[in-house]
Design a protein that fits this description.
Length: 358
Amino acid sequence: MDPPPSPNIEWQANPWVFGFILSVAINISIGLYFSLFAIVDFLITKCFKEDHRLVKAHRKTPNFMHCFYFDTVVYTFVVIDASILLFTSFPTSKPFNGDLPSEVVILLTVVCGIRIFLFCRDLMIFKNARSKIVTLLVHIVFILVVGNAMITEKAGIMAFIIIISEGDVLVTNTNKLLRHLGYKHSTCYKASTYVGCYAVLAFRAIIPLGMLAVSLVGGKPFDMRPPSSVIIFFLALIFYGVVNTWHVNSTVAKVCKRKARVIEVPYANFVQAVDETLKEGVDEIPPSYQDACRPDIPAISGSANVATNGQEVDLESGASRNSTMESERQSDYRHFDMAGIILSENEDSYQHSAISNP
């Protein structure tokens, strides 16, 4: 049963009130961004020694820790608040055209202000140009959808869908923190990876699809006025459908991945060994694959480096080094924004060896 309709409030049509709430939300976000880190830093310096990994992370990668505390606390609070209002105040019988109560409009305004702060934050701290552009695009679409619902009071269900779909931030950010601190091979990290996978499936796939199906049963998006609300609704539907699909795919692939066994064939060693045998004119069987793989075969003399298929092969030792190993290791420490949407290879924020204990 829907809640009784709220009386018309004049301030909802006053742009100055919207501006005041946005300003308060932005300023509170700035204060939380610095105060949360300062409070936790004070507590850990009293409880842990200087060689603790968390203390090292605060000293060496403060940007990452600032973002971690702010994103985890603020987004968890916003998702819980949005979930409560969805079941208590949102007009579920008219999800597209129903007039939004004042408390829902206030929540959307606060969320819009938080996102504006995040847009400015990522604009300043992101270094990777490609990641910065995509992340800022995500923020722009989010602000556009929430702002449209806030001003026109139409397509409010889509604003709630994209807000609640970010409920996996608490678990996924914890997983990133454990990896950042060097606990990638620990039981806690593996457990958080599996829990994060279920959280992503629930918040990025099951819950949004269920909310969308229920809203389509209760109303029609083409009945919204003005027509710009219809355009923004389908824009958000396609855009966040792609984003959430990417999230689910990458998370499931992360859980299901297996270490591939690469059989490296020292082709240059084998050919050189056969050539030496043919030059000597000895009527014998060429060396087998196992013999060619051995670093101490007599047919190999001197030292040389041969690059084959992106690998550097040392002919003297018979050892094969993968020249792309370092780049793959660096790409493993990727920075996601607070919703875990876009990755950024932030070298200043991710220095695994500097934080992990020797």
